[in-house]
Amino acid sequence: MPIKRLLLAVSLLSCTFVVATTPTHALAEPTYIIDPSLSALEQADAATIRNAITKAANEYGYTGFTAVIYAPTLNGANWAFNELAKISCPLGSVENLASGTAIADLSLGRCIVFKATPISYPNVAKNAESVAYHEVFHLAQAIRGGLKPMGARIDDMRWIYEGTAEIGGYQPQLSSGKLTQNSLIALLRDSAMNTSSSLTQISNAWVDDSIALVSIPFLRTNAMYSRSYLAAHYLTTITSNEKVMKDYFAEAGRLGDHVAAFTSTFGMTVSEFDAKFSSWIGGWTAPSASTTKANSPQRSVKIGGSCSVLNATSKVGGKKVTCKRVAKRLIWTKS
């Protein structure tokens, strides 16, 4: 989520949720600090969140951080603020913690904080797992170099940091088949087309709310997230997943300039890419039913075999494989 916390409207929250079991013991876990004042329902929400954070941390191969989970009250926000101070990892004021849902340490990747509350944003297909994967990916960005140090012109490139975190956030639902890539594009495109602002303007809007849009806060927030996700997704299709999700961050850390790193990594300026992206998103139409059926996840999974959902994961002989683009084809490759 952005450094200046912008939340989806509370009215969009759905309180229907499934209580998750305790995280699988076989998985390595981050360090957890749990608010002792949680009610029984809040403890169930905390268990769901903890399970999702642990899964995400193992997926990204980084568990060396602390996760603080606190009660959804002002006292809970004060408690979280004090606990974060003890580990020298402040993530905003008490007021921001009280009004927010989740915040990650975007600078050094040391900690994350979550409010123990049901998380469900059906209008943009988000749940506790997708938010956890999003926030933990922000820690991965920092570890991969992009936000350590913050570097020059970060405010112009927040779209790629939020967009790639959104890719991480939606991946569990895409991999499991709960969502298809085309249905997600169609859903988010509705929000993304609520603004015609450039990616640079959208990036700065996380600081100053400046994008051109009707003055309804949750529409502005949805538009920024959706357009950033779709831009990052489109960038993976015309370059590669590896460049977007890993190489760019390392290059930004090496150069110390987030805008220059984009050109260095992808061989085009942000403006040139924005023109390509605007053309793509403006002309995108949902595939026909026959095309959608043809693009559904394959039943047979084998290394080198065709797959249909970019970055989907599966297993062959007990080993993880990932759907990658190779020579303009999507095939299953060793992870």
Structure description:
By secondary structure, the protein is of the alpha/beta class. It has 3 domains: 10-144, no CATH class; 170-289, no CATH class; 299-334, no CATH class. It has helices at 40-60, 74-86, 94-99, 128-144, 158-176, 181-192, 199-208, 217-238, 241-255, 258-266, 270-283, 289-294, and strands at 31-34, 66-70, 102-104, 111-115, 120-121, 126-127, 313-316, 319-326, 329-334. The strands form 3 sheets. Strands 1-2-4-3 form a 4-stranded mixed β-sheet, with helices on both faces. A 3-stranded antiparallel β-sheet has the order 7-8-9, with no helix packed on it. Strand 8 and strand 9 form a beta hairpin. Helix 6 crosses helix 8 and helix 8 packs across helix 9 (241-255). The longest helix has 22 residues, at 217-238. The chain is globular and about 55 Å long. The two termini are 27 Å apart. Mean pLDDT is 84; it is low at 1-25 and 290-299.
Order of helices and strands: EHEHHEEEEHHHHHHHHHEEE
SS element count, helices: 12
The portion of residues forming beta strands comes to 5-15%
| Head-to-tail CA distance between termini | 27 Å
Main pleated-sheet profile: 4 strands, mixed
As a percent range, the share of helical residues equals 40-55%
* Number of separate domains: 3
Tell me the structural class.
alpha/beta
Residue windows where pLDDT falls under 50 for at least 5 positions: 1-25, 290-299
Gyration radius over CA: 19 Å
* Total strand segments: 9
Mean pLDDT: 84
Strands side by side in the biggest sheet: 1-2-4-3
Principal-axis shape? globular
